[in-house]
Amino acid sequence: MSNGQEDIGAARDRFVEDLLGYMTLEEKIGQLVLTRPDYGATGLGSRREDEELADRLRAGAVSAIAGAMRPDRAERLRRIAIEESRLGIPVMFAADTATGRETVMPVPASLAASWDMDAIAAGEEVIAGEARAAGIQWSFAPQLRRLSYRSDEDFAQGTGESALLAARVALARIRGLQHGDMTAPEAVMACLSVSGGNGDNGEDSALQVVLQALAEGVASTALGPSLQRALARLDTADPQIVAARANLLAPVQLGEWAEFARLAGAQPANPPWFNLPVARVAASVRDGRIALARIDDAARAMLAAKHRLGLFSGEFAPSSGNAAKVPMPFAADRRTAARELAQRSVILLRNTPALLPLAPADGDILVVGSAAADRRLPLHGRPGEAASLLDGLEAAGIAFRHAPGMALRQGEEKGDFGLVDADRLAIGMAGEAARRAHTVLVVLGDTPRGMNAGMLGQAQQRLLDTLGAATTRLVLVTLGERPVDPLANGEPLPAVVHGGKLGTMSGHALADVLLGRVAPTGALPYAVQARGSERRLPFGHGLTYTDFAFGRVHAESGLDCIRIGGELRNTGEREGAAVIQVYVRRLDSDAGEQLRDYQRVAVVAGARREVTFTLGAAAFAVLAGDGTTSVEPGRYALRIGLDADRAIACEMDIGAALAHAMVAGARRGAGRSAAGA
Asked: Which CATH architecture has domain 548-676?
């Protein structure tokens, strides 16, 4: 930390401590009250609701307001908090920024498919900038949600099956939303939401993510009860934990707010940290059920967050008008960031023979499927419209014909994928058009969930079979939640591209990839396998428009690490990038193999690059119940390569001395981080 940053931090701490000294117990608890008026999606509400909220603000009993609200109403409430409350503490406005407001970014599943943390952070910076321009300072994102391919949940909101990849996506989103330390005018306070021990989340891996997020400066958390208790049990004597605990009291912890309500005997809200009952919590402090020091720490965290966001600065004084807002980022910059992130999220699953990239000189292109013209599908329920694939092709100057392929219907949203009479006519017309086309792009939207995950609906399969019988130059583009790798008339398709829900710039990004203006670099964050099928695409799979070979693998022991690497060769005729992945498994353990590190590596045509990984304690660690980690001596299998199937294996022994040195090295690094914090 620089001297200037230290001075700012010290000034903030003094300001917050002075303010705490003036506050009553009720006002301190008021800083822990997050409320959500029942205004509905339009932001319209009754005069009575307005006045009740205004009275609570005057009493210092509301700290933050969540949900949609008309700008003039928000400005009035902001002014009341500053001008009419005893201490003039500003109110914060919160919302679920999700994938964006005006510029919608790819959904979390697509973010994970990019494996590009810098691009993800850049996208979240755009989301944060638009939120601040709308007067929002607190985002209820990101959510840590690991999902397997066959999960029946909202698949688009998951970030794959790897704990490591899910963690890195969450941390990149935090970094982008907060613009680093949250002091930038465009920054919003991020909120890491995790429900430990729920479904595929896994409490152990979730705790590791939370600890890392705390150490790196996440400003707020919304943790389930089990994770909140796990944090409270951490062994503070372990230097590795000290780094996280250095920031443990700094974030706004909504899970602790819910605990205050529980200790006060209040009925749980939904979510449980909303509308903390001030009077009941105050009574619980006075009778000793809740320690005053805990209230002080929690209020201190909220006040410090408001200070970091600039809400106490002169720029946000009442005399400056609607100063809670910041200027909207330039539209061109927002679209560029969205387009680049969407490009990196596209996954090329198959391309044999090489039908892609398309060349305008190839001749007549037929695009089949209503999803190709759909401007709502890429947004996954967010308001507004996106560029469709047809929009992208038109903007690129590509001539094409379009056929719906199936009957227009609303049923896909309801899970209705059956074959109706009108489908037979539309499919037949598409088949006839396909016989006269040079290349056919068939574009499908969502496919069945749950038990049918990975399979097409009846009408979708009939369309694919018909087109496959009409042409050998068939390219499947999927714009649904999850990728599919179907058969057409019992045979794999030659070319399959998964776009997914790519947001505002979906059509332009897809056109860029299909036409070869950018090469696909996305990779699967899960293995793809339809139920009842032996065919699968492995975790980490993703092709590009060149060929890669990986070999000459070497591994060696260091003083406190294992080094493993190999040579990546571009054997094709185009520049490209590959995601090199490292997997680790202890041979005498029941625990499965896990992704432990990866690198995106670009190589020009005909060239080769050495790729090296240094694996420390984190790659081999076992997490104890108190949050401490250890490395168990033994023999480990390491694999490195282009995906989970195309990886070269080797084995390494980790003796007691090396295991001890790994843990000690991690603790030294943690200690340095804590000292820096």
From this structure: Sandwich (2.60)
> Could you tell me the maximum CA-CA distance found in the chain, to the nearest angstrom?
83
As a whole number of Å, the end-to-end CA separation of the chain is 7
Distance of alpha carbon 345 from alpha carbon 481, whole angstroms = 13
Question: Mean of the pLDDT values across residues 302-322?
Answer: 72
The answer to whether the beta carbons of residues 358 and 137 sit under 8 Å apart is no
Token pair in block for residue 244: 């996280």
Burial class (CB in 10 A: 0-12, 13-18, 19+), 398: middle
pLDDT reported for residue 626 = 60
Higher pLDDT, 376 or 213: 376
Count CB neighbours of 184 within 10 A: 18
DSSP three-state, residue 622: strand
The per-residue DSSP string of 94-162 comes to EE--TT-SSSPPPPHHHHHHHT-HHHHHHHHHHHHHHHHHTT--EE---B-----TT--S-GGG---S-
Q: What is the pTM of this model?
A: 0.93
SS3 198: coil
4-42 as b/e: b if 16+ CB within 10 A = eeeebeeebeeebeebeeebebebbbbbbbbbbbebeee
pLDDT digits (tens, 9 = 90+) for 24-52: 999 999 999 999 886 544 444 566 778 89
Q: Judge whether residue 676 has pLDDT over 70.
A: no
From residue 544, give the alpha-carbon distance in Å to each of 451, 609, 646, 655: 31, 17, 15, 40
Q: What is the chain's length?
A: 677
Bridge partners (DSSP) of residue 261 are none
Residue 637: phi and psi, rounded to 5, are -95, 130
The answer regarding whether domain 3-320 maps to CATH 3.30.450.20 reads no
Percent of the chain that is helix, strand, coil (3-state, to 5): 40, 20, 40
Query: What stretch(es) of the chain map to CATH 2.60.40.10?
Result: 548-676
Sign of the CA dihedral 192, 195, 199, 205?
positive
Give burial (CB, 10 Å; 0-12/13-18/19+) of 361.
exposed
pLDDT value at residue 237: 55
Percent of the chain scoring above 70 in pLDDT = 87
Rounded to an integer, what distance in angstroms lies between the CA atom of residue 639 and that of residue 649? Answer: 4
Give which of 448, 425, 514, 502 is closest to 475, Cα–Cα. Answer: 514
String of DSSP letters for 478-515: E-SSS----EETTEE-SEEEE-----TTHHHHHHHHHT
Among 4, 69, 17, 62, CA closest to 41:
69
- Residue 357: is the preceding peptide bond cis (ω within 30°)? yes
Q: Which phi and psi angles does 125 have, rounded to 5°?
A: -60, -40
Residue matched to tokens 């509301």? 62
Pick the closest to residue 260 from 56, 16, 28 (CA basis). 28
Domain span(s) for CATH 3.20.20.300 in the chain: 3-320
What is the Cα–Cα distance from 658 to 636, expressed in whole angstroms?
13
192, β-bridge pairs: 221
Q: What is the 3-state secondary structure (H, E, C) of 234-281?
A: CCCCCHHHHHHHCCCCCCEEHHHHHHHHHHCCCCCCCCCCECCCHHHH
Please give the CATH number for the structural domain made up of 346-514: 3.40.50.1700
The distance of Cα 493 from the centroid of its chain, to the nearest Å, equals: 30
Question: Which pLDDT score is estimated for 413?
Answer: 43
For residues 50, 53, 54, 60, the Cα torsion angle rounded to the nearest 10 degrees is -170
Q: Is the pLDDT of residue 312 over 80?
A: yes
Which residues make up the CATH 3.40.50.1700 domain(s) of the chain? 346-514
* Listed residue (173, 101, 600) closest to 379, CA to CA: 101
